[in-house]
């Protein structure tokens, strides 16, 4: 490696080569047509080819899986397509790990680490990083969907606290206007059904708002 760094547009390929083990205790090359083809070179290149192919065919694969053949002319909010967003973040992590691996030797020298330790850590991230990123991103998107639904059901927080006649303190919520409500609910992806707790809280808040209007 000797501190040499690849150009930015080929860094991911160089990183894939650096992550691939070079020596194995068994035959790790293919002899064909009078040439010796090492798998330590062929496998990274094949993996990168599959990655690029997957990026290109993803729209058709997603349409085949979801059976959604409609024409889409409006972009989706990332949180409203959690699986697609998770897959995108996983691809970014995959590409990012390869780019970081391309400069693993400089990371080791600058932070006084062993090159092998850096490579082992990057190998772990190469295999498990995209899966972890997908799971976390998808859960975040679903949580944001639930937060949007909570805002639609309860209204926007106004920051005003009111004390009821029997001593209870409540925060007054303000209903959303039609524009913001449409922004939060105008998608047709799968949404988990409303839980009994959410319904109870929504009715409870609505009753407080009614009491407030009647008292005013």
TrEMBL record:
Residue intervals passing through the bilayer: 41-61, 87-112, 118-137
Keywords on record: Membrane, Transmembrane, Transmembrane helix
GO CC annotation: membrane
Segments forming a coiled coil: none
GO MF terms held by the record: electron transfer activity; oxidoreductase activity
Gene3D superfamilies: Cytochrome Bc1 Complex, Chain C (1.20.810.10)
InterPro entries per the UniProt record, alphabetical: Cyt_b/b6_C_sf, Cytb/b6-like_sf
Domain of life according to the entry: Bacteria
Name of the protein this chain belongs to: Ubiquinol-cytochrome c reductase cytochrome b subunit
The species this protein was found in: Kocuria coralli
């Amino acid at each position: 490696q000797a501190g040499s760094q690849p150009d930015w547009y080929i860094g991911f390929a160089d990183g894939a080569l650096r992550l691939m083990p070079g020596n194995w205790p068994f035959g790790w090359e293919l002899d064909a047509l009078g040439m010796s083809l090492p798998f330590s070179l062929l496998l990274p290149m094949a993996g990168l080819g599959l990655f690029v192919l997957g990026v290109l065919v993803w729209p058709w694969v997603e349409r085949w899986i979801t059976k959604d053949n409609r024409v889409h002319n409006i972009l989706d909010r990332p949180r409203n397509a959690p699986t697609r967003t998770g897959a995108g973040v996983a691809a970014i992590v995959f590409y990012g790990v390869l780019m970081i691996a391309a400069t693993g030797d400089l990371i080791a020298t600058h932070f006084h680490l062993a090159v092998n330790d850096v490579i082992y850590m990057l190998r772990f991230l190469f295999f498990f990083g995209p899966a972890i990123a997908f799971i976390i991103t998808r859960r975040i998107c679903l949580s944001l969907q639930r937060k949007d639904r909570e805002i639609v059901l309860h209204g926007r927080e106004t920051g005003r606290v009111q004390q009821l006649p029997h001593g209870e303190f409540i925060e007054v919520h303000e209903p959303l206007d039609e524009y913001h409500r449409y922004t939060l609910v105008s998608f047709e992806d799968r949404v988990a059904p409303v839980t009994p707790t959410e319904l109870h809280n929504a009715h409870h808040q609505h009753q407080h708002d009614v009491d407030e209007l009647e008292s005013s």
